[in-house]
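sry for the spam today, last one i promise. struct tokens for design, 265 residues
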């Protein structure tokens, strides 16, 4: 299916590894011009060099509005505009008793998992408005809908992100800019690798056994009994940023293998 976005310009944050890199690769194959961003310039240079078509690698710290503004400005200087933002940057943050986590713990997750999206929207959406067409997609999480008590900092930031994008979607649709979130669960990324390595050490079992036991005990809704793949999330993102998704706005699209055991978002 032709997604109708060949020649468009997309900024992909968190572009080294995981869902960000998988999305950049998929969009590049669709003819999208990619502006890849992460904190490590050498790392994004390496990823961008392997992408088909035109690409640009720009290091940026999404906790700083000036970095985000510079990222968008450089993208527009190179390609003339910005049509698409896929914002995947994020952290799991501190874990533990919600009442024992510090203000700094909450602030860290808030700045990286929530406010970074606000910063990206401030910088990029005015350009999309000018062109009368845009797609703004952020990575949320199953935690926004189905929170886990020990991940309060992450839960709070991601739930706020979904609410922010929903509200933004009402404002921007009249300008031709559609805003959505994607909510993955237990995807094969460095983040879940680290979780499972820690679990394996604590349980004195293999990595694979740690994954199996986690699925059985903590994510019974994933009846396929495996982690999701970054490519599977990238495919959902590619649809949302495409011209085919012209009537999809303000949704939180789950790519969670059924992890969220509920009907409503």
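last one done:
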């Amino acid at each position: 299916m032709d997604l109708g976005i060949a020649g468009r310009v997309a900024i992909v944050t968190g572009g080294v590894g995981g869902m960000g890199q998988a999305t950049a690769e998929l969009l590049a194959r669709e003819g999208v011009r990619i502006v890849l961003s992460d904190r490590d310039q050498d790392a994004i240079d390496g990823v961008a060099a392997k992408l088909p078509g035109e690409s640009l690698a720009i290091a940026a710290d999404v906790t700083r509005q000036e970095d985000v503004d510079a990222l968008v400005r450089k993208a527009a200087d190179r390609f003339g505009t910005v049509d698409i933002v896929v914002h995947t940057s994020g952290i799991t943050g501190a874990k533990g008793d919600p009442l024992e986590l510090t203000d700094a713990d909450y602030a860290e997750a808030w700045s990286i998992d929530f406010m970074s999206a606000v910063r990206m929207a401030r910088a990029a959406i005015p350009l999309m408005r000018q062109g009368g067409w845009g797609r703004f997609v952020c990575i949320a999480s199953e935690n926004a809908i189905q929170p886990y008590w020990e991940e309060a900092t992450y839960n709070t930031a991601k739930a706020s992100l979904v609410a922010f994008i929903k509200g933004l979607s009402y404002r921007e649709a009249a300008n031709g800019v559609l805003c959505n979130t994607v909510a993955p669960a237990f995807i094969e990324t460095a983040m879940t690798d680290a979780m499972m390595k820690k679990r394996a050490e604590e349980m004195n079992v293999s990595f694979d056994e740690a994954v199996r036991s986690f699925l059985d005990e903590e994510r019974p809704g994933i009846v396929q009994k495996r982690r999701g793949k970054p490519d599977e999330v990238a495919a959902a993102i590619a649809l949302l940023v495409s011209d085919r998704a012209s009537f999809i706005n303000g949704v939180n699209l789950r790519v969670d293998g059924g992890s969220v055991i509920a009907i409503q978002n």
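The mean pLDDT is 97. ok im logging off now
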